[in-house]
Design goal:
single chain; about 450 residues; alpha+beta; four-stranded mixed β-sheet; about 25% strand
């Protein structure tokens, strides 16, 4: 959590009065570099894991990879990293865009790199065509998958006059390829009344179950489990199956993404992925067990069995065993979880379907006009929009969004008006005692006056 003492200060050097210094370490690392590039204000981030108990001090490989990506889509930007890696200085340059190919660090999913690019892409000099290679699905650290960005974030950009596109050209476990294209705009459109009214009722639910080196029966079990949650309430539920055939991936896994669309065009998305990592034994996570079938058990009451089948490419695995000397990659320690198992625990197909369905129901319960993961994105576009008042209705603000609002005030001087929002159908309720149990009590309406940000990088014709 952010303390009262951890506030940005100006550099003591009289020649760098505009440079902001943050002493909060690696927290909110990406958003501050992005705001620095947009506002053309140098920034210095200090104390990056300087007191870390781990052996790794300073920047992690995925953070260095993100800095290289920002350098690839800009011209003249200077990033200075100290010898210990605990300090990073960014001197912003010109956002050029154009065609860029980049290979990301496999420890983070591609959404870790794409989310900030969504905020930068419309303000480049040329239309951005970005090809990223890396991990497609979400990971254990909480990053979203590319599917969630495609179905939840891209519709937000359309409200501001943008027409971006995400295409998945190649799918593997840790070496997928994604093509992201976004046109440039001289100035964003003002957000009208699409996102500050009633969200409407859910009209349809769509989804995709995909897998690497798994049988089609496992994907069918995921679909059956997920549809069982929604069929009693809505009949328009359709989940497709995509068994990635011909993939050179040697690591099995499967995932599910569900997205619900309302009558007002609002989209709620939930996704999850479960698999094993051939290079990281710590990813073989465990959950508490309630009931165990009869069989041999290891110490601690945990039972070992094969979660994924090895029907394909057995000869390739035999060659890998000689090179990697990991004889335990075929065994995963797993127990039977409850339906509300935490993300990151290795579960079966039915538990995965139940877990994603519950996440989607929880997101729908907020009745927000924006997905909770991308609250910061719509607020950032509102701040950079024309000098008109715009507003949006969101659910409970996430800690990331709260800090993003603080950083917007630091970099651009924008202050949002936050007030509670009650739907019209709730204003006629006579019983005030039910307010505590009302799910709409967490709705907030955020309004601001745009800065009139103009893209000076755009090529004039």
């Amino acid at each position: 959590m952010t303390s009262a003492k951890e506030v940005p200060v100006f550099d003591e050097n009289p020649n760098n009065r505009k440079k902001l210094v943050f002493n909060q370490g690696s927290n909110f690392f990406r958003q501050r570099l992005v705001l620095s590039l947009l506002s053309s204000r140098p920034v210095k981030i200090c104390d990056i894991r300087s007191n870390s108990s781990d052996l790794v001090v300073g920047l992690r490989p995925f953070e260095v990879s993100f800095i290289h990506l920002l350098s690839a889509i800009s011209n003249g930007s200077k990033f200075k990293i100290s010898e210990t890696g605990t300090e990073v200085t960014c001197i912003p340059g010109l956002l050029t865009g154009d065609t860029v190919s980049f290979k990301t660090d496999p420890s983070k999913s591609l959404s870790y790199y794409l989310e900030p690019i969504l905020f930068l892409a419309p303000f480049c000099k040329k239309p951005l065509e970005l090809r990223l290679n890396g991990r497609l699905q979400n990971d254990l650290s909480g990053n979203n998958s590319v599917y969630k960005l495609k179905h939840a974030a891209l519709p937000i950009l359309e409200h501001f006059g943008l027409e971006p596109d995400i295409q998945i050209t190649s799918r593997k476990y840790n070496d997928s390829e994604v093509k992201f294209t976004c046109p440039v705009k001289k100035q964003l459109l003002t957000l009208r009344t699409q996102l500050n009214q009633d969200c409407g009722k859910v009209s349809k639910i769509r989804g995709l179950a995909y897998g690497f080196r798994v049988t089609p029966q496992m994907l069918n079990r995921i679909v059956t489990s997920a549809k069982g949650f929604f069929i009693p309430f809505i009949s328009d539920v359709f989940i497709t199956i995509d068994q990635i055939k011909g993939s050179k991936s040697k690591i099995p896994g499967y995932g599910l993404v569900l997205y619900a669309t309302t009558t007002k065009g609002i989209t709620y998305v939930a996704d999850s992925f479960y698999g094993r990592d051939i290079s990281d034994e710590s990813s073989l996570t465990m959950v508490q067990s309630q009931n165990l079938d009869d069989g041999t058990q290891t110490s601690g009451g945990k039972r070992k069995f094969k979660l994924f089948g090895d029907d394909e490419a057995e000869d390739e695995e035999e060659l890998d065993k000689k090179k990697r000397h990991q004889s335990n990659i075929d065994n995963v320690v797993i127990n039977v979880p409850q339906l509300n198992s935490k993300p990151g625990s290795v579960t079966g197909p039915e538990e995965l379907g139940n877990h994603v369905a519950q996440l989607l129901l929880k997101e729908m319960l907020t009745r927000s006009c924006v997905d909770s993961v991308f609250q910061w994105l719509v607020l950032g576009y509102m701040a950079l929009g024309p000098k008109n008042v715009s507003s949006v209705v969101t659910g409970p603000l996430t800690p990331f969004t709260i800090q993003f609002l603080r950083d917007l005030k630091i970099f651009f001087g924008i202050t949002f008006k936050v007030e509670e929002h009650n739907l019209e159908e709730d204003k006629h309720e006579e019983d005030d005692d039910e307010e505590e149990h009302n799910p709409n009590s967490g709705l907030h309406k955020l309004s601001c006056l745009g800065t009139g940000y103009i893209n000076l990088n755009k090529t004039l014709i």
